[in-house]
What does this fold into?
Amino acid sequence: MLTYWHRPLQDVLNAFIDAGFTFISLTEPKVHPDTPSELLPPGDKRQFLSFLFLTLALP
It folds into this structure.
């Protein structure tokens, strides 16, 4: 089970660019107010959960 994977954002995005993709959108969803605190990272309980949603296109 993968629980943590960190790469600088520029490395992730550049990999898509190098593969020929064009970015249509990038979204960072906010934590839903009803999310149980035990599912959130320690510290600020309303912080970003590290999910990025990319919409990509090939030319």
